[in-house]
Amino acid sequence: MVPTAENPAPASTDTHFDVVVIGGGPGGYASALYGASAGLNVAMIERQRIGGTCLHVGCIPAKELLETAAVHRTVSHAKEFGVLADAPGLDFGVTQDRKQGVIDQLVDGLKGLLKGRKVTVLDGTGRLDADHRTVHVSGGESGDVSITGDAVILAAGSAVRTIPGFDVDGTLVVTSDELLSLRELPERAVVIGGGAIGCEFASMMSDLGTEVTILEALPKILPGVDKDAAQIVERSFKKRGITVETGVQVTGHTPGERGTTVHVDGGEDIETDMVVVSVGRRPFTDLLGLDQTGVSVDDRGFIEVDENCRTSVDGVWAVGDIVPTAQLAHIGFAEGMVAIRDILGEDPQPVDYARLPWCIYCHPEVAFAGYSEEAAKEAGYDVVVSKHRYIGNGRAKIIGDTDGLVKVIAEKGPDGEAGRILGVHMVGPWVTEQLGQAYMAVNWEATVAEAAAFIQPHPTLSENLGETLMALTGRSLH
Question: Taking burial as the number of CB atoms within 10 A of a residue's CB, which of 4, 91, 169, 302 is the most buried?
Answer without folding.
Answer: 302
